[in-house]
């Protein structure tokens, strides 16, 4: 019997219940979430060993959840979705999923894939970084989407927050203009570098002590940007 902790992210109650019962019968400890918001909270507080994600969630696409989790959670992510087109599978795997199983599915195959992923990851279930990260006077809770500067809450627009998370996931590496545009805006915007300049300026205005001489959001000329001090 396994003691691994598994988080199920599925908005359809019947499917969630079906998967939960199947996993509990195998000895897994199971937690449930019906939205991206609740999934992020559970992932931060429960520290699961594996996450099962449906792509069709009510508050955001499951691929966005996978991308956010990949910024700070080093556990296998298994997609369980009715979307069977190849491009959906590729997009989910590119976002950070480890495996993809289409609905309808059989319980034996689901359990086999879970066991394979847990073996592959050594069933350590470790978090590569806490959901709360900091640099200088800035603190960010990746699970609740809250940002503080010198202890005071800072309001970021959705684009600014996605850009900040992309920089955090970069972990002090230089991220090219194309990488950031692709991750934050999508494939249709990879040639619109002015979008990136404008929103980076806004981010510096809100988080840097002196936006004209940034300490954290560093420009790498003609290449991209790098977040330092994380």
UniProtKB/TrEMBL annotation:
It is found in: Cytoplasm. Residues 5-118 form the Response regulatory domain. Residues 130-229 bind DNA. The modification 4-aspartylphosphate is found at residue 54. Pfam families: Response_reg (PF00072), Trans_reg_C (PF00486). Residues 130-229 form the OmpR/PhoB-type domain. Keywords: Cytoplasm, DNA-binding, Phosphoprotein, Transcription, Transcription regulation, Two-component regulatory system. One of its GO terms (molecular function) is phosphorelay response regulator activity. CDD domains: REC_OmpR_KdpE-like, trans_reg_C. The keyword Manganese does not apply. Its main location: cytoplasm. PROSITE patterns: OMPR_PHOB, RESPONSE_REGULATORY. GO terms for biological process: positive regulation of DNA-templated transcription. GO terms for cellular component: cytosol; protein-DNA complex. SMART domains: REC (SM00448), Trans_reg_C (SM00862). It comes from the Bacteria. This is Response regulator.
């Amino acid at each position: 019997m396994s003691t691994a902790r598994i988080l199920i992210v599925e908005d359809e109650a019947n499917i969630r219940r079906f998967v939960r019962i199947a996993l509990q019968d195998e000895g897994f400890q199971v937690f449930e979430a019906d939205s991206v918001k609740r999934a992020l909270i559970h992932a931060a507080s429960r520290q699961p060993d594996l996450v099962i994600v449906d792509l069709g969630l009510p508050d955001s696409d499951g691929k966005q959840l996978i991308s956010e989790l990949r910024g700070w959670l080093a556990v296998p992510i298994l997609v369980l979705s009715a979307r069977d087109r190849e491009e959906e599978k590729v997009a989910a795997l590119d976002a950070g999923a480890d495996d993809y199983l289409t609905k309808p599915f059989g319980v034996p195959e689901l359990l086999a894939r879970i066991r394979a992923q847990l073996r592959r990851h050594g069933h350590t279930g470790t978090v590569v970084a806490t959901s709360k990260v900091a640099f200088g006077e800035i603190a960010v809770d990746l699970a609740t989407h809250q940002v503080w500067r010198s202890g005071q809450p800072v309001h970021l627009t959705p684009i600014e927050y996605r850009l900040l998370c992309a920089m955090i996931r970069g972990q002090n590496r230089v991220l090219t203009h194309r990488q950031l545009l692709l991750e934050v805006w999508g494939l249709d915007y990879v040639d619109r570098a002015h979008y990136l300049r404008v929103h980076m300026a806004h981010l510096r205005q809100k988080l840097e002590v002196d936006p004209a001489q940034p300490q954290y959001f560093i420009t790498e000329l003609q290449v991209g940007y790098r977040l330092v001090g994380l």
